[in-house]
């Protein structure tokens, strides 16, 4: 049974940092896409960052490029999202997602429809 469990959310002041973790169990990750998405109140869920496990390729939404970093620890089966220079507009519920239906060679997909497994989400609140 595949499970994705996020942790690390919380309340932080603008300019601060947080690191989100997503522990993945029940499936090998090699060759598949892992992604982080977020959903603010009243808005649609949007792509934040993605990576191809084992390939090192990462991609980001323009709004977080240069501030957020996605990475993975193969031994811990965990994907991370390091968030620096946080802004109030980063406030949202953050979700980890995995696409175990396809192999990708270039980059992780940015469309949420591509992902078939999701975590429960973790709240990130950035105060001004």
Notes on the structure:
This protein has 128 residues and is mainly beta. It is 0% helix and 48% strand. It has strands at 3-7, 10-13, 18-25, 33-39, 46-52, 58-60, 68-73, 78-83, 92-99, 117-118, 122-127. Strands 2, 4, 5, 6, 9, 10 and 11 form a seven-stranded mixed β-sheet that branches. Strands 1-3-8-7 form a four-stranded antiparallel β-sheet, with no helix packed on it. It starts with a strand and ends with a strand.
User: What is the residue-mean pLDDT, rounded to a whole number?
Assistant: 94
Percent of residues in helices comes to: under 10%
Multimeric status of the protein: single chain
Structure class: mainly beta
Which of globular, elongated, flat, extended, rod-shaped describes the shape?
globular
Uncertain stretches of 5 or more adjacent residues: none
Give the CA-CA distance, first to last residue: 40 Å
For the biggest sheet, the summary is: 7 strands, mixed
Number of strands: 11
Number of continuous helical runs: 0
* SSE sequence, one letter per element: EEEEEEEEEEE
Radius of gyration: 14 Å
Can you lay out the helices and strands and say which pair or pack?
Layout: E1 3-7, E2 10-13, E3 18-25, E4 33-39, E5 46-52, E6 58-60, E7 68-73, E8 78-83, E9 92-99, E10 117-118, E11 122-127
Parallel strand pairs: 2-11
Antiparallel strand pairs: 1-3, 3-8, 4-5, 4-9, 5-6, 7-8, 9-10, 9-11
